[in-house]
Design brief:
Structural class of chain B: mainly beta
Shape of chain A: globular
Number of helices of chain B: 0
Strand content of chain B: over 45%
Distance between the termini of chain B: 41 Å
Distance between the termini of chain A: 36 Å
Largest sheet of chain A: 7 strands, mixed
Radius of gyration of chain B: 14 Å
Largest interface: A-B, 28 and 25 residues
Largest sheet of chain B: 7 strands, mixed
Order of helices and strands of chain B: EEEEEEEEEEE
Helix content of chain B: under 10%
Order of helices and strands of chain A: EEEEEEEEEEE
Number of strands of chain B: 11
Oligomer: heterodimer
Chain lengths: 108, 119
């Protein structure tokens, strides 16, 4: 079973800043099958990125994903107020799938 | 536009079982998957298992093997998640989520079903 470790646990930034979130896997993820989700308080998660770098429909272009093998990154180029939330990476290249423990992005 | 409608909140006794349903409406692709994810209070997301109804395939997290069963009723576009041997550690919000293809992330989520296990 692949274990995903996200860092940092909490990231304190200001609106307009650039955010870089990391997701490291315990073994290589087949075909780069990594997704990123944002979860706002009291809401269901929403898909941001699929296949490591493909933005989901309707996701603003300030969100970008990159990486391969065991190291993946979500970058938010200019933080908007609605971006302060918790972010999860997920791998679905190897069953069972798994999530990282999350990175909380809060306002500095 | 696909939507997922989940069944209502449940309160269960320790040792009992719970069934949560997830009904898909709208345009669904033939190869879509339905995944169950849970979130304990104040905790992160936990992948429980998935079903690919068109293939009759299920996968489960090792943690839940033998305790969870995911079944699909294709004619009604409903997927069920049964969890047995409930303990207080199973108190959580249970989400179903759809991927339009097994090689894609989960792009449609249900609103979640709260399950409380308490004596």
């Amino acid at each position: 079973e692949i274990v995903l470790t996200q860092s940092p646990g909490t990231l304190s930034l200001s609106p307009g800043d650039r955010a870089t979130l990391s997701c490291r896997a315990s073994q290589s993820i087949s075909s780069g099958y990594v997704a990123w989700y944002r979860q706002k308080p009291g809401q269901s998660p929403t898909l941001l990125i699929s296949d490591a770098s493909t933005r989901a429909a309707g996701v603003p272009d300030r969100f970008s994903g990159s990486g391969s093998g065991t190291d993946f990154t979500l970058t938010i180029s200019r933080l908007e107020p609605e971006d302060f939330a918790v972010y999860y990476c997920q791998q679905y290249g190897s069953m069972p799938a798994s999530f990282g423990q999350g990175t909380k992005l809060d306002i500095k | 536009q696909v939507q997922l409608e989940q069944s209502g909140a449940e309160v269960k006794k320790p040792g009992s079982s719970v069934r949560v349903s997830c009904k898909a409406s709208g345009d669904t692709s033939r190869s879509h998957t339905i995944t169950w994810v849970r979130q304990a209070p104040g905790q992160g997301l936990e992948w429980m298992g998935r079903s690919i109804p068109s293939l009759g395939l299920q996968d489960y997290a090792r943690k839940f093997q033998g305790r969870v069963t995911i079944t699909a009723d294709t004619p009604s576009s409903t997927v069920y998640m049964d969890l047995r041997g409930l303990t207080s550690a199973d108190t959580a919000i249970y989400f179903c989520a759809r991927s339009h293809d097994p090689s894609y992330g989960m792009d449609v989520w249900g609103r979640g079903t709260t399950v409380i296990v308490s004596s």
